[in-house]
Write a structure and sequence with these properties.
CATH superfamily: Homocysteine-binding-like domain
Structural class: alpha/beta
Order of helices and strands: HEHHHEHEHEHEHEHEHEH
Number of helices: 11
Helix content: 40-55%
Largest sheet: 8 strands, parallel
Low-confidence stretches: none
Distance between the termini: 35 Å
Strand order of the largest sheet: 1-8-7-6-5-4-3-2
Mean pLDDT: 94
Strand content: 5-15%
Bound molecules: zinc ion
Shape: globular
CATH topology: TIM Barrel
Number of strands: 8
């Protein structure tokens, strides 16, 4: 059993894993039409293999494949299985994170009392089912509003495990409820988050500046999880990955392992404690990050200069 996650973060950066959702679809293990998370139930061996690849690459935290779980009949079975698969690949030395994705997302910048009750019931079940299966921390991620993310935090805290909460930003540097990264992070901490940060929709180039603003504004550990896709000219976010039908068009623009290694080094240099990755980040990216951060990988590749000749 690894040490308490928050203690561990204080000792230096922890490396997260990569993106599951788009990759499971790309591997033909899940489909957007039926719901990618169903891969957990339909192809557990394939999901386990992706977890194992990230673990071999050097990831120190494996996320249960529960991102994007909507209302389905087999919700409890899916959550139980998702956590079990991550735990099997994690072994005794890595952390397993439960995963919570938005219910309303950007569709509801403000939540009515009825909205809050509805989303609270949903989060209560999702967190409870994963906690019962045994997770070490929870990553509440890709939330467009502090309001919705904050509904989830008490359910994680009631379970007695750390709550990592990350917000997502698209065309501008404000949440859908109008908060800057610094303001949003502070409010999340006031509402109980143990670790705050930013994730998804943006590659390192435009996500790291937001992470830097969060780092300056708060004293708690910070998490960052960028996408692995280059931006279109003039863009600040990967619009394609949020538009149904365009999700796969980013595939030709995957960042190189060298660029991702540079991201890891820059995140470390600005004091990010939880250096992770999101959509498009594959096991070889995580291995490059592990190498760049001087972390052990089962498949070290130190014959290459990931620092682009600087070392
Ligand atoms: Zn993502």
């Amino acid at each position: 059993m690894p040490e308490d996650f928050l203690h561990r973060l204080r000792r230096g950066p922890v490396l997260g894993d990569g993106g599951y959702f788009l990759e499971l679809e790309r591997r033909c293990l899940g489909s957007y039409k039926q719901g990618v998370p169903l891969a957990v139930l339909d192809h557990p061996d394939g999901v386990l293999e992706l977890h194992r690849e990230f673990a071999r690459a050097g990831a120190e935290v494996l996320q249960a494949m529960a991102w994007g779980v909507g209302r389905i009949d087999r919700e409890a079975e899916l959550h139980r299985t998702a956590v079990a698969l991550a735990r099997e690949a994690a072994g005794p030395d890595r952390y397993v994170a439960g995963t919570l994705s938005p219910y309303f997302g950007k569709r509801r910048p403000q939540l009515s009392a009825a909205d809050r009750r509805e989303v609270a019931a949903f989060f209560d079940r999702r967190v409870g089912q994963q906690v019962a299966a045994g997770v070490d921390l929870f990553i509440v991620e890709t939330f467009h509003t502090v309001a919705e993310a904050s509904v989830a935090i008490p359910f994680v805290k009631q379970a007695g495990i750390p709550a990592v909460v990350t917000l997502t930003y698209q065309e501008n540097d404000y949440t859908r409820d109008g908060l800057s990264p610094a303001e949003g992070a502070k409010q999340l901490i006031d509402n109980g988050a143990d670790v705050v940060g930013v994730n998804c929709h943006r590659p390192p180039q435009t996500l790291l500046p937001l992470a830097r603003a969060v780092r300056k504004a708060v004293d708690v550990p910070v998490c960052v999880q960028p996408t692995a896709y280059e931006l279109e000219p003039g863009a600040v976010y990967n619009r394609e990955i949020v538009v149904p039908g365009l999700w796969t068009t980013v595939e030709p623009r995957v960042l190189s392992r060298f660029a991702v290694a540079e991201y890891a080094k820059e995140a470390e240099s600005i004091g990010i404690e939880f250096i992770g990755a999101c959509c498009g980040m594959l096991p070889y990216h995580i291995r490059a990050m592990a190498d760049a951060l001087g972390k052990p990988s089962t498949l070290p590749d130190r014959t290459r200069a990931y620092s682009l000749g600087i070392e």
